[in-house]
Amino acid sequence: MSYVFETLGNLLHQTAFFNLTWGNFLMIAVALVFLYLAIGREYEPLLLVPISFGMLLVNLYPDIMMTIEESSNGVGGLLHYFYLLDEWSILPSLIFMGVGAMTDFGPLIANPQSFLLGAAAQFGIFAAYIMAILMGFNDKAAAAISIIGGADGPTSIFLAGKLGQTEYMGPIAVAAYSYMSLVPIIQPPIMKLLTTEKERKIKMEQLRPVSKLEKILFPIIVTIVVVLILPTTAPLVGMLMLGNLFRECGVVKQLTETASNALMYIVVIILGTSVGATTSAEAFLNFDTNKIVILGLIAFMFGTAAGVIFGKIMCKLSGGKINPLIGSAGVSAVPMAARVSQKVGAEADPTNFLLMHAMGPNVAGVIGTAVAAGTFMAIFGVQ
Question: What is the pLDDT of residue 2?
Answer without folding.
Answer: 67
